[in-house]
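User: Structure please.
Assistant: Input sequence and predicted structure:
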Amino acid sequence: MKERTGQLAATKPSSTFYQLPSAFALRLGVAAAVSIFLAFITVPLLALLLRVPLGSFLTDIADPVTLDALKLSGITTIISLAAIMVFGTPLAWLLGRRKFHGKQLIETIVELPLVVPPAVGGVALLLTFGRFGLLGGVEQRLGLNMATGTLTAVVLAQIFVAAPFYIKSARIGFAGVPREVEEAARVDGAGAWRTFRSVTAPLAAQGIAGGAVLCWARALGEFGATLIFAGNLEGKTQTMPLAIALQMESADGLSRGIVLSAILIVASFSLLLTFKLLTGKSLEVMNVEL
């Protein structure tokens, strides 16, 4: 009996076979996964930057198509960001500081442009503000044109896709302000506006600034909604992403497309890095650090 028990024990699989990976193996796996992912993001960007035609760089920059796209992108993104901050900040404050019925519904509506394809947003805007859209008749009676071929259409498309980035980040900033500090300001005689201006807004500044950075970067890269709603007209609605797409389709436009792409990469990277260096903090949106 003892001999059989010993044989069973000898044939029993070692428990170490089922043990979790060692700490070293786990670190190695994490390092490999991180390296592969970073390479997947970094290598294509470097490949693009290495293909920038240095010999014709100044010529490509001075090309009217490039200059018009740069100018239009700069103007429209600044207008879009200003409009989003003016109208989005009260909503971000409301979502961050108040509890009320329907709050989750409003948050879902705000987040919807994050998951809906931009092209769908462009179609929705066209069916709302287009000549034969929901508000088309009202626009015609007022003598307005907010759709295809106008600067206004570009701005509206950028606002539609970029606003959630600002609102979500600013909401997190407002939600992190201690209520005790606001209550102390009110005890000292500060009114609602003074409390917001002197206490709430400064303490939520990181979330507001981070949201503004992300919002501007997203507006700068907007393509699908702009193409469908505003069109791709050089000097009128052709922003940098639209100009890149058009140049990449032409036989002699490859170098200009690469130059415009490189400008977008460098501008976005510089903006993000500058924000982190000046504040010493990471961008936050939807409770996730960036």
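The first strand starts at residue 284 and ends at 285.
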